[in-house]
Description:
The structure holds 2 protein chains of 2 kinds.
Chain A: H1 8-19, H2 21-58, E1 64-71, H3 74-80, E2 85-99, E3 105-112, E4 125-129, E5 137-141, H4 142-148, E6 155-159, E7 165-175, H5 182-185, E8 188-192, H6 194-199, E9 206-213, H7 220-235, E10 242-246, H8 260-295, H9 297-305, H10 310-351, H11 362-387, H12 392-398, H13 409-415, H14 422-431, H15 435-470, E11 477-486, H16 487-495, E12 502-514, E13 520-529, E14 540-543, E15 553-557, H17 558-564, E16 572-577, E17 580-590, E18 598-602, H18 603-610, E19 615-622, H19 631-647, E20 656-657, H20 658-701, H21 703-711, H22 716-758, H23 768-795, H24 798-803
Parallel strand pairs in A: 3-8, 5-7, 13-18, 15-17
Antiparallel strand pairs in A: 1-9, 1-10, 2-3, 2-6, 2-9, 4-7, 5-8, 6-7, 11-19, 11-20, 12-13, 12-16, 12-19, 14-17, 15-18, 16-17
Helix pairs in contact in A: 1-10, 2-8, 2-10, 2-11, 8-11, 8-15, 8-20, 8-22, 9-12, 10-11, 14-22, 15-20, 15-22, 15-23, 20-22, 20-23, 22-23
Chain B: E1 33-44, E2 47-59, E3 64-68, H1 75-83, E4 90-95, E5 98-99, H2 105-115, E6 116-119, H3 131-142, H4 147-161, H5 176-187, E7 194-198, H6 206-221, E8 225-229, H7 233-237, E9 241-246, E10 249-252
Parallel strand pairs in B: 3-8, 3-9, 6-7, 7-8
Antiparallel strand pairs in B: 1-2, 1-4, 4-5, 9-10
Helix pairs in contact in B: 3-4, 3-5, 4-5
Amino acid sequence: xxxxxxxxxxxxxxxxxxxxxxxxxxxxxxxxxxxxxxxxxxxxxxxxxxxxxxxxxxxxxxxxxxxxxxxxxxxxxxxxxxxxxxxxxxxxxxxxxxxxxxxxxxxxxxxxxxxxxxxxxxxxxxxxxxxxxxxxxxxxxxxxxxxxxxxxxxxxxxxxxxxxxxxxxxxxxxxxxxxxxxxxxxxxxxxxxxxxxxxxxxxxxxxxxxxxxxxxxxxxxxxxxxxxxxxxxxxxxxxxxxxxxxxxxxxxxxxxxxxxxxxxxxxxxxxxxxxxxxxxxxxxxxxxxxxxxxxxxxxxxxxxxxxxxxxxxxxxxxxxxxxxxxxxxxxxxxxxxxxxxxxxxxxxxxxxxxxxxxxxxxxxxxxxxxxxxxxxxxxxxxxxxxxxxxxxxxxxxxxxxxxxxxxxxxxxxxxxxxxxxxxxxxxxxxxxxxxxxxxxxxxxxxxxxxxxxxxxxxxxxxxxxxxxxxxxxxxxxxxxxxxxxxxxxxxxxxxxxxxxxxxxxxxxxxxxxxxxxxxxxxxxxxxxxxxxxxxxxxxxxxxxxxxxxxxxxxxxxxxxxxxxxxxxxxxxxxxxxxxxxxxxxxxxxxxxxxxxxxxxxxxxxxxxxxxxxxxxxxxxxxxxxxxxxxxxxxxxxxxxxxxxxxxxxxxxxxxxxxxxxxxxxxxxxxxxxxxxxxxxxxxxxxxxxxxxxxxxxxxxxxxxxxxxxxxxxxxxxxxxxxxxxxxxxxxxxxxxxxxxxxxxxxxxxxxxxxxxxxxxxxxxxxxxxxxxxxxxxxxxxxxxxxxxxxxxxxxxxxxxxxxxx
Amino acid sequence: xxxxxxxxxxxxxxxxxxxxxxxxxxxxxxxxxxxxxxxxxxxxxxxxxxxxxxxxxxxxxxxxxxxxxxxxxxxxxxxxxxxxxxxxxxxxxxxxxxxxxxxxxxxxxxxxxxxxxxxxxxxxxxxxxxxxxxxxxxxxxxxxxxxxxxxxxxxxxxxxxxxxxxxxxxxxxxxxxxxxxxxxxxxxxxxxxxxxxxxxxxxxxxxxxxxxxxxxxxxxxxxxxxxxxxxxxxxxxxxxxxxxxxxxxxxxx
Lengths: 805, 253
């Protein structure tokens, strides 16, 4: 370098970096981790916005879906002629079962559209094979095709409710961004034409209108109002019977992707975590720069003694930080890109969309550059200016000497603990010597710990919620009776199964909530069940449960209560059931169970309202009232129930074992929790690095003290113990803070995650186990982080310490 | 430029100066270095500790002055007052007409870089730079000479102190005497007229100490002014003038 005529200042900067490779790498890595996390999350968001929301909106998503009695294609044209309708598409949906070669059945929807190449709303893309299915042919949605190994040329068997089976030739693979993907719904989407529907015995005509409203309104109320207008002004006057008016998605807004709220919520949580990562990596930069400056105090003094101005020296360290930043950025860019591709691909496979280009968005690149360059510089500037302000005299004659600046309150308290051995006392006293530095390290470790405990508490809360949800599935096996059945026949068949003790029959009906102005509002489900039900364990939040003879009284679930807003016990709801609107009194509110807005009525009352005698829409079976069957027993019972009900002609639906419901709710959360625990792990690593830096500075600042210890006979283990005990003590102090703050931070994270993903209020449960795990982890971090500084301390000789003067 | 060559210097444009009534030295000329009633008191929790009391000292250009005294007598404090490393509690210090006690830390650093070379007892070379880079760094900081010339000048200085062969080694690979020579070369980097040195031979064996002293002598012969703090009375006697200090006061000069 000398021969290249690089100035000595630059040589010093480069040599300082190169001469302390581990330390330099530590700073570069800490910058890289923070920046890469930001890049990963924001670039993944860019992919999702471009390739999911972008593709979703390009395919003209429906604002509302209206189920109508069978109608011809021309009705969609008439609807489209309404001034508040931008486009309308006729569709036909038939629930069927797909029978695999091994006899296993899968829920499936046989969907038909007039022309797949010219769909006006919810456009489906044919990816392979025939552009449209011919008679006895079908296209299959790609995610289900991949999951079940279905390919073009295969023949699949579909079974109808009347138990008849038909063979359909798979003619193509389609991508339907508007249907719930197989990964979530476990429903196979098959696309065919009306002729094939008729061939399998279905009636002619379509039964669903997908409508894009003019101006693509994004609020639910406007969309539902306009949907009602379509029904009242066109469909019903034209003689069609309109059923549900739905807004597609999981409590989504009209025109938005069905999982947009959930995805945005999850990204927001990740962004908060990335901000924490940036904060911590910034802190680590401060710590390391402070360590470098402390280590080089004498060098700063020497440079000043040979004529360097403070700003000249400060500039050298600024360049030093700049090099760290550039190194961090160089690492972070590919890491962030790879991470975003991984996250994007994961989202794409889960939500069934394609990543079109694995690029780095220009604005994400700009954010990464700004963060990589600005954050370390901003946080390092103060320590640099402070460190370089030292006078030559202080640098050369005073630094490293035993400071007797008096004791703080904590140190005075510790001083009273006379029973402590001197080395332990020294460790504890050392901990509180530099409170700002201790503060930063403790904050870093505390944040990591709080995140860790919060992640585990979120899981505990989810388990608690699932526990609450599962109260509403207090059965071993349940089976739906599509199309309805007779309660007496259903119970007779159920009790013929060996070991069945309870066969509780429910009936259901749809209802529309009527607004005070007479317009129709949200849809809800009415559930008629025995008032002394033993297949749900009701958790009442307010009011009372149903009693025999309750007429026009109902118990709402929490989802419905939330939808209604300020509902109170004793309020009256006007519900339209069929063509009749009736008033009902709210007598109780039960906890939520994620089956959507529902209300419970006595079985006999709902049967009377719907005019059905002994209706049975679902039967819930238990083998014992004292507990639930094992997972294997539930599976075996499910198979037996399916077989008996199929043979009896009561139902061909799949029976649902209780444990399936549990895993359905828990599954998606596991991924989120893994991400959260990984983030907590990263924060823990940054916290550990920070503690290493702090301990390193502490050792450096106490060089003379260590020399004195050496001179009075301290052995290597004794000196090592002083340093390691200090590290562990700092870790334990941080754990103490975690115990104080983690109940509230954990509640906040659990609420954020669960609200984002489930759109549901949280039932918080604090993870005490997580708190104990963190104690173990942080003690290990404290010990490991102190090992390197402890090793440095034991290598100091008395002579070196004297030379230090 | 070679060691010992006299250079003409002037006070820096950016250094504040003020008109002073410069003290006359014993021969009636204005002194290059002028301490007037200088006091230094260190304030500690145990109470005030006067390190220097009423110091009046005038040194002319080209003088080789040694300062001797017992440990704790105030020798190092005195040289630190000269180099601006420490500041007097009271009194004035003027060097070539510049009242250095009035300079800010930054202006002091700039002024010192060009006008005063400092040699420490423990050499204080920067460990991450080679020997020649250590010599070049004052030039960089003070923007002295054309950058392309700095290496040549630094090598020349190392040649003069007899360690050119070690120019590209890290300081840790040099002996104590060699390191002190490198420190002297660094002190001469910007060709300052004054060299201040605190126990330059304190960490050297007698043979090496003698060689370093001869180097100083050669510098004085070339026109440099040297103030050397030492506890070695024999060495001190070989300087042109000896100032003895005890309990912060000059008791003999």
